[in-house]
Amino acid sequence: MSRSAHPAGPRHADVLPEGHYSAPPADLNVLDPKVWSRTVARDERGVATIGGIAVDALAEEFGTPAYFLDETDFRARCRAWAEAFGKDADVFYAGKAFLSKAVVRWLKEEGLNLDVCSGGELTTALAAGMPAERIAFHGNNKSEEEIRTAVEAGVGRIVLDSFQEIVRVAHVAQSLGKRQRVQIRVTVGVEAHTHEFIATAHEDQKFGIALAGGQAAEAVRRALRLDGLELIGIHSHIGSQIFDMAGFEVSARRVVQLLAEVRDEHGVELPEIDLGGGLGIAYTSADDPREPHEIAKALNEIVTRECEAAGLATPRISVEPGRAIVGPTAFTLYRVGTIKPLEGLRTYVSVDGGMSDNIRTALYDAEYSVSLVSRTSDAEPMLTRVVGKHCESGDIVVRDAFLPSDLASGDLIAVPATGAYCRSMASNYNHSLRPPVVAVREGEARVIVRRETEEDLLRLDIG
User: Fold this and answer.
1) Mean pLDDT in residue range 8-16
2) What are the DSSP E strand ranges found in 205-329?
């Protein structure tokens, strides 16, 4: 059903201001499966559903804003990655994308490993029962306490990020009478075609040890000399939200070249190579991500070809998808509040959340889709900017999107593909309360991370 038209801003593409948008879709009611999780549909009333439950019922029970995570989709993506790479490779879910005890249990049950990059993520992983040997520990500035916790727990690998950390981890391991399995993270001089702040393999940034100038080779020398370390391989990560495999090809070639140099100098063939993560997902219909089996085939071919050329045995490959697994599995549900048309420009649609639950638009100029989900509408499309309720002009959720011109206060709208980084990077800006994460599966919904309360805020404020 639809409502009478709201006195909105411009509606036709030929009179719209310049921006990030493209022409409006042919049908605003269609929920593109490329950007929505696999159990999302519309019911006979036109209301969007996830896992068979309508969003109006979810809003009534759990409130808004809230993240709704499709557990069926999450598990299916875990299985797809595990099957694509097979038993001769390792898939580590990048916990920084989104981590909770429920997610850890799903990963364990679906056969994936887990990488963490802080003591808090490690604590969550261990508390939820992830075997320590299936955990990799990242980070550019791990504290001695964090390292000690990881070594005592028996994590499967620690990724060394600096010369200082080589000594630090070796010292902790020796003091505990252990020999810790480690990889060295190298920066390979490949800058992925991505945002400056999330491209991580060029030399001018905080992560890793550069191949340039022989620094990575020197790191290998030092690690091999220390009794507390068992050097098992080289780690590389070239960025995030990557669709083009060309960067991985260059990265793999340079890492394999380092492996060959290690063999020639030390007589050792390191058995593992980790190519990191960063594989992109569809935030809008224009995005065209690769499937796990395509990625696995491409990476295996690249590494095998380069190793054959160098006369090396092919090492065991590891990858670290985070966003590529959890990103598409969730959407954020908002309730529309103020609607403010700006004549000749666009209509501002304010929702009950904002940059406190999704900082990525403000931080990275990230693009998202948005749909009216509490009903369908045949009204003409209008150009909108979906914004939050925070005291910040940069509080933008979706910069440019088309919504029906009869949109009204009280309607429910949803932003798909918010499973990765939105809850992880959520804040209490303006003393807002971070939303809950609700897992939905086969007609059942349950809170896996509860909504914060004002009591939570006051509990930390000791006056």
Assistant:
1) 46
2) 209-210, 229-235, 272-274, 316-319
What is the SS3 assignment for 173?
helix
CA distance 408 to 403: 11
Joined together, the tokens standing for residue 358 give 């999704």
Global pTM? 0.92
Cα distances from 397 to residues 34, 79, 355, 366, 401, in angstroms, run 20, 31, 7, 9, 10
- The 8 Å CB, 24+ separation contacts for 158-163 are 158/182, 158/183, 159/183, 159/184, 159/185, 159/235, 159/274, 160/184, 160/185, 160/209, 160/219, 160/223, 161/185, 161/207, 161/208, 161/209, 162/209, 163/209, 163/218, 163/219, 163/222
Question: Could you tell me the CA-to-CA distances from 204 to 138, 185, 212, 249 in Å, in that order?
Answer: 19, 15, 11, 21
Beta bridge partner(s), residue 115: 94, 136
Please give the average per-residue pLDDT across 317-343, as a whole number.
97
User: What's the rounded Cα separation, in Å, for the pair 389 and 395?
Assistant: 8
> Is residue 321 a contact partner of residue 299, using CB atoms and an 8 Å limit?
no
The token duo for 137 is 């520990």
Q: How far apart are CA 333 and CA 379, in angstroms?
A: 21
Q: What would the pLDDT profile of 207-253 be if each residue is shown by its tens digit?
A: 899 988 899 999 999 999 999 999 999 999 887 888 888 888 888 88
Average pLDDT over residues 139-157: 97
Give the Cα separation of 353 and 398 in Å (integer): 12
Q: Are 31 and 422 in contact (CB under 8 A)?
A: no
pLDDT of res. 190: 75
List, in order, residues 6 or more apart from 87 with CB less than 8 Å away. none
Q: What is the DSSP string of 395-414?
A: -EEEEEEEEETT--TT-EEE
Residue 422 designated active-site: no
* 52-82 as b/e: b if 16+ CB within 10 A: ebbbbebbeebbbbbbbbbbbbbbbbbebbb
Residue type, 40: V
What stretches of 282-363 adopt beta strand conformation (E)?
A: 316-319, 330-342, 346-351
- What single-letter DSSP state applies at residue 380? P
DSSP letter, residue 196: G
- Spatial separation of the C-alpha atoms in residues 49 and 431, rounded to whole Å: 31
183, 176, 185, 243: which is closest to 209 by C-alpha?
A: 185
- Considering only CA atoms, which of 434, 377, 447 is closest in space to residue 407? 377
Q: How far apart are CA 108 and CA 113, in angstroms?
A: 7
Catalytic residue among 78, 117, 307, 391: 391
